[in-house]
């Protein structure tokens, strides 16, 4: 006959299994788009708003803070269909490599998710092939969102700092 301890462990394991699965009303969504960070251009979509006293002599730009309102498009071409904006900021947070602290809201302005947002907060080691950042929340159709965003540089100019980044975002939400 099973002991009380064994039954308790069995019931606890079963309850954890149930609570960790996707609920019936929860949706899984995959989003794919291109992020355009225009530092030099008309109009610029990312501007440095602060810097440390040592930023200009740092090999990594450590201490700079940039505010952004970057377009999100369906294709890599900046003139392709606009689906949203990445609004927020990034700081150059590493003294050893090009590592950013990203804090941004992905604000959708077209289609099924018009008016909804996703919040992303995490580290972006920009010279890594693929970077993963956590999605920590959302609003509208993305209420209670959680998941991850995979960023891959599509195009980058060392001369201007302009970049086009491909994003694949995987989330669970209400």
Automatic annotation (TrEMBL):
GO CC, alphabetical: apoplast
Leader sequence segment: 1-23
Keyword Signal among UniProt keywords: yes
A Pfam family matched in the record: Dirigent
Family per similarity comment: Belongs to the plant dirigent protein family.
Known function: Dirigent proteins impart stereoselectivity on the phenoxy radical-coupling reaction, yielding optically active lignans from two molecules of coniferyl alcohol in the biosynthesis of lignans, flavonolignans, and alkaloids and thus plays a central role in plant secondary metabolism.
Name this protein carries in UniProt: Dirigent protein
């Amino acid at each position: 006959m099973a002991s009380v301890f064994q039954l308790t462990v069995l019931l606890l394991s079963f309850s954890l299994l149930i609570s960790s699965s996707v609920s019936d009303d929860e949706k899984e969504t995959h989003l794919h788009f291109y992020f355009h960070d225009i530092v030099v251009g008309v109009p610029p979509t990312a501007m440095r708003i602060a810097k440390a006293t040592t930023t200009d002599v740092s090999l990594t730009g450590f201490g700079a803070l940039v505010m952004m309102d970057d377009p999100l498009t369906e294709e890599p071409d900046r003139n392709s269909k606009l689906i949203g904006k990445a609004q927020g900021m990034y700081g150059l947070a590493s003294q050893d490599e090009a590592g950013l602290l990203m804090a941004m809201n992905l604000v959708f302005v077209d289609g099924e998710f018009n008016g909804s947002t996703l919040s992303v907060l995490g580290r972006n080691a920009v010279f890594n092939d693929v970077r993963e950042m956590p999605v920590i929340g959302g609003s509208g159709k993305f209420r209670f969102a959680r998941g991850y965003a995979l960023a891959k540089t599509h195009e980058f100019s060392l001369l201007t700092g302009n970049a086009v980044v491909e994003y694949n975002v995987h989330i669970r939400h209400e």
